[in-house]
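Sample log: Glutamine synthetase.
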Amino acid sequence: MDERREHGMERDVERDGGGAARRAFQPLDGEERQRLAARAADLTSDLADLSGIALTWVDTSGIARTKTVPVARLEHAAAWGVGMSPVFDAFLLDDSIVSGRYAGGPVGDLRLHPDLDRIVPMAALPGWAWAPVTRYTQEGTVHPIDTRAVLAREVERLADLGWSARAAFEIEWVLSDGEGDDFTPACNGPAYGMTRLTELSRYLRDLLDALAKTGISVDQLHPEYAPGQYELSVAAEDPVGAADTSVLVRETIRAVSFDHDMVASFSPKVLADSVGNGGHVHLSLWREDPAEGPVNAMTGGHGPFGLTAEGEAFAAGILARLPALLAVGAPTVASYLRLIPSHWAGVYQCWGLENREAAIRLVTGALGERGRAANIEIKCFDEAANPYLALAALLAAGRAGLAEKASLPEPMAADPAALTDAERADAGLRRLPETLADAVAAFERDEALAEALGPEIVDTVATVRRGEIELFAGALPEEITESTRWRH
């Protein structure tokens, strides 16, 4: 489920993904196009043994979409982009299309520009490289619903205040080796049991090898609770890089699973009567000290459990806005089948030290490494979320908390569901939204998120979410899980 992870700064030495994305946020003029073309030409020789490059972005429903180009076409794609309709912002998870004020319909075109600093050969897909894209208009400005650029903008806004963030997604998935669309667990060992490692040891070995060859820094891999379920933790990095990595890791898992005649699902709920796949987010706030270097605001202070005043304010801003944040972090009807009390999904709006039933868990790390490891874990999110949009919204909420000098309520040291109604009322405990409709209503009311994300994204998210609500109106939990289990 949820293990400690390091939030050190060393990965910036390897690749400043946030910096690359911030450059991509700038309008494209002739000089920038020439620079991109020259950079792509330099890269082409290193990719000569490959056939094509998969260019991906994640839509509002959390599905990674793609266009591909031959390696020989990279120079043109870098300078001038690859055409793609903006209609994908309005796709539902079943590939039907809704229409809002800013998205939907057959008219228009965007240009997909690969992040050249993030191109990587995919060991799990021989002959292919992968790169995330930023979507531009034909006039060379960033598309206002491009969530990767929106996340880069939030990183910049935080930097303007003297802060940076480190992030990582936990990746949970289940494996099926059955026929058709039914789910048949690919292993039968007990939860967290060594038996599950033994059953699929060759698969897991190939997965770790593929991730290492693709440049992914894996912290740990272990069997999980549900039948056929595993979890993989990766190193923390800058927020844009963390979102990129989550996409790359999932596509690597998917490819290795196919190679072993299995199918992977990242859906929040695969079986109606089983626990689901979470997409927990680990997040920490940092500042640069002239004498000490990078300093983690989630420890070393005088606040509760060592939080600094700024670290507490950042966490409090997120906690206060969790009902609204669920519209991007738990974005499907199936998500609310997962958000069940006493299932370690964090369904109550509270926080606590190492409390896996709190919506926000403070992770301190072991004594002696807290300056490196301390972070908060947002437990109510799942992997149907667009990782770029999820992190952008979390950073915006944390930034609002900093501006408000917000403070956290009393921490929760127990399972909130084990308390009586009176005890929860006395503690001011509230359930997070129990339906997607309630989360969308909270999202549309939140002024801080609206200011940060912009009207185009707010309207499009609400439109797509209501489209999915209508899609599953009256459906039974079994029908919802059957329709969604292979979409993410």
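Observation: Residues 1-6, 8-24 have pLDDT under 50 and may be disordered.
Observation: The first helix runs from residue 17 to 24.
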